[in-house]
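Quick one, tokens below. Sequence please?
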């Protein structure tokens, strides 16, 4: 993770979670940020200075 685009399955494996749990978390983050996709989330996080 952190190297670019990751699938839900890759994220689940890296974090020892089920794919369903990852999907639920991604969905909640999209809702909280009123975003329609992960790119919008990434841009928001980057603009807030929360990335390396």
């Amino acid at each position: 993770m952190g190297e670019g685009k990751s699938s839900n399955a890759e994220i689940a494996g890296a974090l020892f979670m089920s794919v369903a749990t990852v999907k639920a978390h991604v969905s909640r983050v999209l809702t909280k940020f009123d975003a329609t996709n992960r790119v919008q989330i990434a841009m928001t996080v980057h603009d807030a200075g929360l990335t390396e």
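The chain has a mean pLDDT of 91. Residues 19-32 form the longest helix (14 residues).
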